Each structure stands twice: as C-alpha cells, then as structure tokens.
C-alpha cells in the first residue's frame, strides 16, 4: 500500500500525469481536425510540459512559503534533485525532438508561449514595495493558463500541418478548448481559495465566492457543449458533450477541502476523459 502511494505521488507530483494530459489533447486535435497524428509533436508537448511544470515547482520562493503547506509541496521539497533531473532531461528531449523534426513551427509563436509560461510564477511586476508574478495579477491566472494550454494543444498541431488557424472551424476548435480548460482551471482556483485569501491573491473564488465561481464554470461548460457540433462529426460532438457533462458533475462536487488526489486525478483527468471519448466516438 505504501509503495503504491509512493508510485502514485511520483506520477502526480513529478507532473508526469499532467504532461500526458497535454499530449492527449494534442492527439484529440488531430482527431477533430482529420489531420494525421504526429507522435513527435505530441512528444514535444509532453516533454515541454514536464519541463515547464517542474521548473515552476522548483522556484526558490516557493520553498519559503509556509501558508497551508500541502502534501505536494512537502513531496517537492523532499525530491528536489529528482525534479531537477526530470526537468533537465525533459528539456533535452523536447529540444532534440524539435530540431530533428521534418516540420517547422513558428519560432516567435513558441517564444511568446515560453515567455508567458516563464513569467507566470517569476516576480517581476512592481507592486508597492515588492514584485509579483503574472499569476498574482488579479483574476489573470485562469486566463493565462487556459490560453497557453489551448494554444499549445490546438494551434501547434494545426500549425504543424500548415492549416489555417483562423478558419471558422479552427477558431471554434480553439474557443471550445479554451472554454473547457478555463472551467477546469476555476476548479483549481477553488482548491487554492484559502491560501489565496491568506496571501491576498485575488482570484474568482476569493472575489466572488466559491458558489458563484462554480456557476461560472458550469456556464462555460454549457457553452462548450452547445458548440460541440461545430467542426466535428455528430459522434465526436457526442463525445465532447459527454465530457462536458462529466466535468460539470465534478465541478458540482468541488470544494476547497477535497484531497489533492481529487484535483490532480479527477479534475486534471477530465482532459483524458475527453480524449478517450472523442477517440471512441471517432
């Protein structure tokens, strides 16, 4: 039992699971767009996600935070060398795959995503007598996360296949993915509401309360379900709609005192549920 929990913690806290979710959403974009899947690009996204998330978790200032230290934070503190090794190995794999690929991706597009992801947790914005990262700008965090995830999992596959990013079908694909990721990101804002209140970070749950935030997330999922037939087959639309219903059921059961496993497996896992449903109905 102890061994199983250690393995589970390693998979979750080393960001292996969330990186698999990112690669899965890339594959889903190929399915919805009718593009032959590029396993190489999915692998680049997988390793890139591993690198960014592990580097973010290793930032020095996070080890000085004492407000409501979570089980995950304790694990990260005890396994810094492992995460550093994984981060460096992931960066090496992503760079090697990219520079040995036959396809080309827009350098400036990738650079702006790396800049946004890099500045997400790095304090650089002056605020009174201190500096804050982008994530602490009031209400900005969820928009940033949803945009970066959507750009990586939708626009990169389309760009790799030389598809028009601004065609109506692809714009709706972008919007639909953004709505879904945004709603899931609000779940994690609910998880962090107590810590954010202590640190003075203004998020949707802090400003408007948990129940109103859940209603917003459900509204976004409704828009996601209503847009599911656009640019997809009816069977794929059914898979997308079912994933929206599953995410709505999860949001209704979300509260700040749920375990870390609820958020890291069930909430993040909604992305893989959607990938699996779209694959089955394709």
TrEMBL record:
Chain segments annotated as transmembrane: 7-27, 39-61, 81-101, 107-126, 138-159, 171-188, 216-235, 261-281
UniProtKB keywords: Membrane, Transmembrane, Transmembrane helix
Record carries keyword Transmembrane: yes
Name of the protein in question: UbiA family prenyltransferase
Species of origin: Rufibacter roseus
Lineage: Bacteria, Pseudomonadati, Bacteroidota, Cytophagia, Cytophagales
